């Protein structure tokens, strides 16, 4: 046994092939030994021959013994493996099977050896060996779970591990099949145990996602029967520690166990359901679990118990409830005994701790006391529960709001014990009231807002036949000027001051609201004093008599007021407001700083305005506009120096309409931009036509709306029109309102510069009517000013108009600007303007607006030739 067997008989590299080949050699060797023994006893042999034979016999004996030992060792080791072991050829043929395999499959070795592995697993696919050899050829082992079949047809699960093996010189594999039946049975018993245990069990993966929760966990978290693990959402719960402090996600026991790989034992957590207002207390133990070969937990299992009931009498529980402002209570109906936690007692604030239901109810107000008592009686009679919001007063007189939840004990068949929570919701109620007030209040002025006043008016008009309600619609005059000149901050300050003045004027006789922008409403009851609305309107107008100051600036801001009454002028809030608005609009356009009561005639005029706006929208397309031309005349010599194009509108439904009736509508609707473009093009076309008639180049002045000027394409449009009719820029004069003076924006200066480069004459129209920003006037590249008819009509007799005309003339001279006077209707006016140094004027003294042919006839007269003076 100490010798080394010859390599041709046994080689470790031969594997099992060497072992099995030695079995045949063993039989031959035994016969050879017997023959040598008999031969060695032959007396006829000489000593030398006999000695050689003895040596050969000893060598053969030793060799045969080692072969026998190797064979026995292989078989002993092969059969000693407790799991079924099979050796398979490359195509899946079974070459050998150990005793455990015969026992497991309940078949004799001869029934399996030489058969394909399908004999043990008929469901294997025809190419089942391909993935096995792919793994083995890479140097990996191959592991798979399959179900194998015994000789009696029964099945059992196995886990098969395969590895490379050389068998009888051939490429083979050895497969060890481990029976999983007991493990599966254990897992099944473990899963059944997890489902029936009364402790909650939750399993989370590395991403902290819940992958399993048992029935107890679903029940504790309030997830109904038949729901899935996905329905278990911890986002609905606010989690606090034992002291009531909200916990971060990383501090939770399961997350700590995942992060540290250590068991987190018996941690007390409070879970407060945000929607159901329910507080649970749990003790939680979290155990990390590692995958084979892993260094970090693959998942964590948390076990927890509901200890809410056990903590009822705990001081720790009371402190946590106090932090959450939630108290607990229990009522034993049979003995009329009440138990309250310390926090519940603090919330109710009784003189002494209540010990019965009436003492507990003493802190509540009626009818809430009656509601609570009725709810308790219903639970006793029918079971179930209740959820009430109740109001009460503490001993010190401070009011409070509480939310009381109660239900019968589930284990009490008589419903004689009712338990629940009691939460102080005073802060929430005060916050709700604050929000309600804010929702009804204008944040800038503190007045009622639009929604609030509509609701108030709607309430008062529930019975409009008997409601004697009056409504004042107040709009501030010149508010836009302040807002544009001084900015929105000053505008806001003006609105706040105006609101204060209106409030002071109205006093307790009406409700004041800001309806929007610079518009205010006043609601008053006119049943006792029919003249009250007009009296309040006068009081409001009087409140605006003093100017408004903003730093060094002072503005005279007035108000226009419309009055409407219910039920005469409207039966619904919107109708009443609309009619008061119509009256206000009329007051503003007739005479500012006044009030106007609504009349059916005003409604008719409003309807006319709507009709004008509707027709105006289609007027350009329907070719309803035409231009007339009012001569601008040299006041000294009487020669025509230019003309102003004035628009006229002939509508097939409304007839001839004056510009003052439709221009303001066009400004409001934005149609003025399209109309202005038409005027510009038509005026240039007419200048070209006069030129072609031999009348020279007539400079025509065209009014440009601020809306046109505010666009980005005015200079480009003017350039295109001049090019279209081959006119020089000097043939066109553009008249702007004073509003452009306050637009000190780079775009404003850029537009003026571009127009001046074209040679276009630039004039400020009606100078002195608006906010004359002299500081901006000197910086704009303009050519002249037009003196408004509003001032020329009063000269030479009205001292104020004379002073204004003198001032404007002085400004024009000092800045080197041309000056044209509008509205010259008398010889006295002409003489005054000449003495003032005004060179050019226009008005009925010379001619009204003329048709193109009439204007051409004037030009053809020798004394009326166009003068460039």
Write down the domain tally.
Answer: 6
Mean pLDDT: 81
Q: Total helix count?
A: 29
Q: Give the CATH topology of the largest domain.
A: TIM Barrel
The radius of gyration is 54 Å
Number of strands: 32
Tell me the fraction of residues in β-strands, as a range: 15-25%
Tell me the span between the first and last alpha carbons: 145 Å
The CATH architecture of the largest domain would be Alpha-Beta Barrel
- CA-based shape: elongated
CATH superfamily of the largest domain: EAL domain
Q: What is the CATH top level name of the largest domain?
A: Alpha Beta
Largest sheet: 8 strands, mixed, barrel
The SS-based structural class is alpha+beta
Portion in helices: 40-55%
Uncertain runs are 1-33, 865-869
Side by side, the strands of the main sheet go: 24-25-27-28-29-30-31-32
3D structure, described in words:
This protein is an alpha+beta fold. It has 6 domains: 12-79; 81-183, PAS domain (Beta-Lactamase, 2-Layer Sandwich), CATH 3.30.450.20; 197-306, PAS domain (Beta-Lactamase, 2-Layer Sandwich); 325-431, 2-Layer Sandwich (Beta-Lactamase); 441-598, Reverse transcriptase/Diguanylate cyclase domain (Alpha-Beta Plaits), CATH 3.30.70; 624-861, EAL domain (TIM Barrel). Helix content is 40%, strand content 25%. The protein contains 29 helices and 32 strands. The strands form 6 sheets. The protein has an 8-stranded mixed beta barrel, surrounded by 4 helices. The protein has a 6-stranded antiparallel beta sheet with strand order 7-6-11-10-9-8. Strand 4 and strand 5 (170-179) form a beta hairpin. It starts with 15 loop residues before the first helix and ends in a 9-residue tail after the last helix. Residues 1-33 and 865-869 have low confidence and may be disordered. Residues 467-600 form the GGDEF domain. InterPro entries: Biofilm_reg_signaling (IPR052155), EAL_dom (IPR001633), EAL_sf (IPR035919), GGDEF_dom (IPR000160), Nucleotide_cyclase (IPR029787), PAC (IPR001610), PAS (IPR000014), PAS-assoc_C (IPR000700). This is Diguanylate cyclase (GGDEF)-like protein/PAS domain S-box-containing protein. Residues 386-437 form the PAC domain.
């Amino acid at each position: 046994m100490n010798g080394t067997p010859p390599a041709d008989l046994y080689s470790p590299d031969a594997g099992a092939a060497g072992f099995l080949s030695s079995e045949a050699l063993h039989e031959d060797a035994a016969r050879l030994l017997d023959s040598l023994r008999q031969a060695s006893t032959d007396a006829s042999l000489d000593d030398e021959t006999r000695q050689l034979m003895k040596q050969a016999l000893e060598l053969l004996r030793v060799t045969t013994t080692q072969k026998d030992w190797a064979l026995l060792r292989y078989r002993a080791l092969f059969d000693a493996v407790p799991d079924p072991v099979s050796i398979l050829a490359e195509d899946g043929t079974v070459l050998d099977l150990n005793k455990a395999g015969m026992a497991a499959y309940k078949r004799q070795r001869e029934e399996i050896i030489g058969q394909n592995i399908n004999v043990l697993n008929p469901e294997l696919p025809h190419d089942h060996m391909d993935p096995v050899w792919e793994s083995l050829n890479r140097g990996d082992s191959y592991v798979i779970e399959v179900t194998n079949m015994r000789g009696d047809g029964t099945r059992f699960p196995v886990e098969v591990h395969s590895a490379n093996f050389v068998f009888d010189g051939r490429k083979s594999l050895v497969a060890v099949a481990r029976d999983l039946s007991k493990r599966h049975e254990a897992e099944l018993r473990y899963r059944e145990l997890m489902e029936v245990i009364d402790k909650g069990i939750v399993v989370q993966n590395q991403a902290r996602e819940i992958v399993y929760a048992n029935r107890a966990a679903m029940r504790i978290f309030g997830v109904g029967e038949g729901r899935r693990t996905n329905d278990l959402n911890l986002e609905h719960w606010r989690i606090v520690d034992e002291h009531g402090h909200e916990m971060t996600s990383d501090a939770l026991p399961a997350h700590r166990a995942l992060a540290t790989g250590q068991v987190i034992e018996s941690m007390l957590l409070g879970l407060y359901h945000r929607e159901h207002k329910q507080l649970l207390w749990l003790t939680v133990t979290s155990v990390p679990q590692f995958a084979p070969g892993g260094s970090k937990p693959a998942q964590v299992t948390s076990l927890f118990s509901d200890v809410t009931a056990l903590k009822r009498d705990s001081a720790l529980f009371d402190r946590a409830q106090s932090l959450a402002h939630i108290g607990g209570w229990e009522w034993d109906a049979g003995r009329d005994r009440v138990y309250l936690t310390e926090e519940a007692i603090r919330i109710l604030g009784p003189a002494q701790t209540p010990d019965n239901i009436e003492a507990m109810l003493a802190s509540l107000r009626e009818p809430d006391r009656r509601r609570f008592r009725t709810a308790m009686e219903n639970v006793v009679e029918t079971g179930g529960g209740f959820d009430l919001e109740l109001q009460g007063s503490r001993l010190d007189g401070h009011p409070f709001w509480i939310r009381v939840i109660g239900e019968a004990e589930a284990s009490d068949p008589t419903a004689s014990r009712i338990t629940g929570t009691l939460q102080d919701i005073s802060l929430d109620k005060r916050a709700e009231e604050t929000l309600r007030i804010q929702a009804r209040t204008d944040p800038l002025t503190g007045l009622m807002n639009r929604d609030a006043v509509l609701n108030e008016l709607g309430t008062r008009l529930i019975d409009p036949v008997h409601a004697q309600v009056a409504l004042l619609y107040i709009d501030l005059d010149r508010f836009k000027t302040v807002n544009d000149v001084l900015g929105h901050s000053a505008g806001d300050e003006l609105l706040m001051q105006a609101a204060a003045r209106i409030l002071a004027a109205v006093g307790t006789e009406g409700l004041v609201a800001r309806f929007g922008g610079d518009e205010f409403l006043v609601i008053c009851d006119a049943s006792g004093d029919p003249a009250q609305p007009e009296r309040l309107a006068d009081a409001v107008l009087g409140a605006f008599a003093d100017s408004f100051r903003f730093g060094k600036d002072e503005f005279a801001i007035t108000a226009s007021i419309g009055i409407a009454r219910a039920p005469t002028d409207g039966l619904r809030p919107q109708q009443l407001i609309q009619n008061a608005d119509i009256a206000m609009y009329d007051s503003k356009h007739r005479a500012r700083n006044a009030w106007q009561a609504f009349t059916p005639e005003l409604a008719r005029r409003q309807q006319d305005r709507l009709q004008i706006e509707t027709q105006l929208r289609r007027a350009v397309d329907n070719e309803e506009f035409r231009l007339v031309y009012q001569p601008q005349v040299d006041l000294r010599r009487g020669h025509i120096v230019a003309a102003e194009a004035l628009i006229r509108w002939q509508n097939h439904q409304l007839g001839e309409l004056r510009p003052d009736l439709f221009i303001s509508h066009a400004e409001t609707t934005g149609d003025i931009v399209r109309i202005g473009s038409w005027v510009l093009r038509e005026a240039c076309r007419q200048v070209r036509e006069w030129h072609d008639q031999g009348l020279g180049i007539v400079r025509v002045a065209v009014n440009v709306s601020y809306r046109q000027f505010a666009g980005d394409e005015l200079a480009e449009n003017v350039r295109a029109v001049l090019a279209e009719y081959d006119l020089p820029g000097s043939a066109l004069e553009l008249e702007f309102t004073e509003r452009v003076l306050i637009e000190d924006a780079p775009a404003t200066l850029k537009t003026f510069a571009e127009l001046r480069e074209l040679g276009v004459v630039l004039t400020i129209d009606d100078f002195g009517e608006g906010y004359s920003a002299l500081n901006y006037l000197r910086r704009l590249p303009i050519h002249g000013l037009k003196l408004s008819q509003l001032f020329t009509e009063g000269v030479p007799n009205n001292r104020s108009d004379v002073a204004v005309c003198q001032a404007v003339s002085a400004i024009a001279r000092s800045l080197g600007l041309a000056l044209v006077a509008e509205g010259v209707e008398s010889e006295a006016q002409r003489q005054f303007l000449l003495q003032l140094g005004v060179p050019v004027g226009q008005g009925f003294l010379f001619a009204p607006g003329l048709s193109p042919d009439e204007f051409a006839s004037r030009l053809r007269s020798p004394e009326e030739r166009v003068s460039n003076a």
